[in-house]
Amino acid sequence: MSDQEKCQAFLKFIKPQIGQQIHVGPWLEIDQKRINDFAEVTGDVQWIHTDVQRAKEESPYKSTIAHGYLTLSLLPYLTESNHPDFFQKNYPGMTYRVNYGLNRLRFPSPVKAGARIRARTTIHQVEEVKGGIQICYLITVDIEGGEKPACVVEFLARVYP
User: Is 0.85 topped by the overall pTM?
Assistant: First the structure.
């Protein structure tokens, strides 16, 4: 089968899933250690993330909060796209996938230290690109018991035969 035929077969597989939620990930607790580790690695040590006492006294959230980009960086875990069986199940006939970027990214609600989050994934758009297929996923990161999500992002991936 040629690469073009593989792409066409994959399009037939994935297009019926547009608009459908395809995955709900596991809950993950965002503890202070994870927040502090992320702050150290990125150099973003703003007190609202790392100073528990000050955040308790001065923050409108009365707690430290996770960095928005920490939440974003956890998408591979939250979507389970790093699971060994993920690729073959979700991209039949394709050989590899690359992260292509983001269209829209919002952080509607902060993630307080100790909160649990999970991701829900919907296929938003699918289109052919040179040599492969581009998939736009709408990913919503929920906060357990929260009214608003922590993160809403249009994530772009490209898959190739």
Answer: yes
